Amino acid sequence: MKKLLVLAFTLALATSAFAAPGTVKAKYSGTIDSYDAATKTLTVTQKDRKGVFVITDTSEVLQGKTKADTSALVAGQKVDLEFVMDGATKLIQKVKVSGTATNK
């Protein structure tokens, strides 16, 4: 029984050490610069930096606390993102739009 527990613990450690890429979440906040529906690319400005993110079929879009679609992604709105990396591509898991668009 003790050997079985040691084996299970070792396998659990090995599995977490070799987790699939894209499992580490990161956050980014800023203002929507643009959204390209054809490429599903969202560009967000944060101070002097621009981040480029990709919306996938599993991405969750929220407007406030309500589920929304990508039509809620309007330039000038503030957003909070959660994303994962897939190589050099930032894949959005969740994007929360807050407020209304501001004039640029």
Protein architecture, described:
This protein is an alpha+beta fold and 104 residues long. It has one domain (22-98): OB fold (Dihydrolipoamide Acetyltransferase, E2P) (Beta Barrel). It has one helix at 2-17; strands at 25-36, 41-46, 49-63, 66-67, 78-86, 89-98. Strand 3 and strand 4 (66-67) form a beta hairpin. It is globular. It starts with a helix and ends in a 6-residue tail after the last strand.
Contiguous helical run count:
1
The whole-angstrom Rg is 18 Å
Which spans of ≥5 residues are poorly predicted at pLDDT below 50?
4-9, 11-19
Per the CATH scheme, the topology name is OB fold (Dihydrolipoamide Acetyltransferase, E2P)
Number of domains: 1
Strand order of the largest sheet: 1-2-3-6-5
Give the topology string: H per helix, E per strand.
HEEEEEE
Proportion of strand residues: over 45%
DSSP, total strands: 6
Secondary-structure topology with pairs:
Layout: H1 2-17, E1 25-36, E2 41-46, E3 49-63, E4 66-67, E5 78-86, E6 89-98
Parallel strand pairs: 3-6
Antiparallel strand pairs: 1-2, 1-5, 2-3, 3-4, 5-6
Features:
single chain; OB fold (Dihydrolipoamide Acetyltransferase, E2P); 5-stranded mixed beta barrel
Describe the structure concisely.
The protein is an alpha+beta fold.
